[in-house]
Structure formats: structure tokens, C-alpha cells
Amino acid sequence: xxxxxxxxxxxxxxxxxxxxxxxxxxxxxxxxxxxxxxxxxxxxxxxxxxxxxxxxxxxxxxxxxxxxxxxxxxxxxxxxxxxxxxxxxxxxxxxxxxxxxxxxxxxxxxxxxxxxxxxxxxxxxxxxxxxxxxxxxxxxxxxxxxxxxxxxxxxxxxxxxxxxxxxxxxxxxxxxxxxxxxxxxxxxxxxxxxxxxxxxxxxxxxxxxxxxxxxxxxxxxxxxxxxxxxxxxxxxxxxxxxxxxxxxx
Length: 249
Prior knowledge:
Layout: H1 10-16, H2 23-34, H3 41-52, H4 57-77, H5 91-114, H6 131-142, H7 146-157, H8 164-176, H9 180-191, H10 199-212, H11 216-228, H12 235-247
């Protein structure tokens, strides 16, 4: 990085978010920010957002873009100038606004929604040909040894890659490990088969995986689908989740 002896600034961080920015230099900037203690409110806000999203710079960029649009609308509504506001010029207010109004509200709502996530009680032995593996899997799951349980699902998947039981419980275990993309994939596989014994469970839990992946529109639509499904025993819980989502608007 060309600024080895200089502290990370908000302007430098924002520049590193651009698509054409050097990947290696961006990583160096993020590493230095990770090891620093910012005193500037805006830079601290950006660091907190990155920390809560596993230092995925694309999440920060999306968050800032949404805030920037709000700033643009505000400026254009009160100005006769037609030129687009400069991104960096408004960065100092974009980040604090995002931090205080957008990001943490969304984070708080996710936490409120999580109270309606119902943990799977256990793993039934529905696959008699793999009885030993599934008994071991149940034991690992109930004792909260999720990493070992997830590894075992990978082993079973080699033999039964399209089995609904496997796909569902691998997704459940992945969710416990905060591997939300894997959980989403597994739940989606199950919801493609309405005859599956796990269809209702996967339909409901998919909404939570989507929420944790910040796919808010998709998550809301999923909970709306569950609410509208009178045959889904989680319909009432989905309605409560939707009330929390709507209250954040």
C-alpha cells in the first residue's frame, strides 16, 4: 500500500470500495483498519459495520449506496442544481446516518426476529440403511457438536445427495453454525418438493436464513408465503415476524 505510514482515513476507505480498486491494496487497508481504533465517528461506524459482516466490503458498499441515495434525494429536493452530489463530499454524514438509523435498526430487528426461530428438536432415524450414521448425527446434534455433525452430513451426502432428510438437517446444522448461505441452499432444495415431510419446516426456516444474508425483500416474501399457507403450523409465528419487519419501516 502506498500509504504505509499514514493512518486509514474515511476517504481512503471509501476509495477502496470502488470496483476498479486494487484487491491487494484494499485488503491491506481493511487489515490496517481492523487493527486500529478509529476516533472519527464516521470511520468507527464503517468499522463496526465491517466487523458485523465478517469484513465483507461489499456489504459496506451496499449500505453506503442506500444512504447516499437518501442524501441525493434530500439535496436535490432543496437545490436547483442538477449535478450529482459527490460521493466523498457526503461520506462524513452518510456513514453516521447509516450507522444510527439504518444498519443497527436492521441488526436489532434481526435479533428480534430470531426469537421466533424454532430450533429443530432432533433428528429422526428415517433412513434405515444409514441407521448408524444417523444415530451418530442425532447424538452430535443434540450435544451441540455442530461442526462434527456438519462434517458427518457431508459424508452421508456422498451416498444420498438428493435426500430430503439429509438436505433439511444439513441446512438446520449449517444455520446453527451461522453458515447461512449453505442453510439457504438446503432449505430451498426441500421447498421444491411440496410432498416432503420437512416442507413446512424448511419453508419457515428459509425466511430466517434469507434475513441473515441481508436478502430482506426475499425474506419478507418468504414469511408472507408461510403466513398465507394455512397448512403450515408456523403460520402464526410468520405473522409475528412480519409485524416486526413492518414496524421497521
